[in-house]
Amino acid sequence: MYQECVKENFLGILLISFEAFDIILKNHMLMVIGMFLFKKVRLMGLTGGKLLLHSKLNFEEENFMKLFKRILKLKNLEIFKFFKESDTVCYILLEDTRRPLSKEEIKRVPLCYMEEEDINEILNVFKISFISEEKLKEEDSYFLRTFFSELVNNTDVTTFIMDEFVKKDLYDDPDLDEVPFFNNLLTYIDSDIVLSEIADHKWMYLSQD
C-alpha cells in the first residue's frame, strides 16, 4: 500500500505517493496545472522515482498514458526515460553544470539578446538534453520542454539550455540502461561528465552518489 495524500481542485486530482503518483486531469490544461501541482509536490519532498500522467491533449485527440522513470540520480546528473503507453519515446539527461554560461552558450537564442550585465549575473547553468531514436513529435517536444523547464530550480542567478538529439542506434546498445550506456549518451551530447562504475548497493538508495 502506498502512503498517499490526495489533493483535489476543480481541474484535477493529484495522487501522491513516495514511490509513484498519478495526475489525472479533466481537460486540456495538463501542462499548466500539472506543472503547478508537480512543483508543489516536489517542494514538499514527496517526489518519487516515477510520474504517471493520464491525459488528453489537443494534438492527437486521443487518450494515452505518459510515464517518466528516473533511472539515475547523482548530484550533478539525473537521467530519465519517457514513455507513452508502453513505448520508450526518449531519454532525458538533466545536467547541473555548476558553472556560468560559456562563450558558445551566450551566442544561443535567446541568451544572445540578453544584456552583458544580466549574463554576468548567471552563476549556474542546467543543461537538459532529449535523446530519441527519431525526431520528437511536436506535441512530445512541447510537453517535455514545458515539463522540464519547471523541474529545474529557476532563480535570478540560474538558467537552462535545452537540446534535442537524434541517435539512430539508441536502443542497439548491449549495455542499455547501465553505466557504459549512460557514458555513451553523455559523449553523444558532448557532456563533460564521465561516470565511474556504481557499486551495486548504491542502487537501493534514492541517490547513487
**Extended strand count:** 9
Overall average residue pLDDT? 77
Largest beta sheet: strand ordering: 1-2-3-4-5-6-7-8-9
Distance between the termini: 28 Å
What string gives the helices and strands in order? EEEHEEEEHHEHEH
Oligomeric assembly = single chain
How helix-rich are the residues, as a percent range?
Answer: 10-25%
Count structural domains: 2
Task: Give the structural class.
Answer: alpha+beta
Biggest sheet overview? 9 strands, mixed
**Poorly predicted ranges:** 1-49, 54-61
Alpha plus pi helix count: 5
The rough form would be described as globular
Estimate what percentage of residues fall within beta strands.
25-35%
CA gyration radius, whole angstroms: 18 Å
Keywords: Membrane, Transmembrane, Transmembrane helix
Transmembrane segments: 12-38
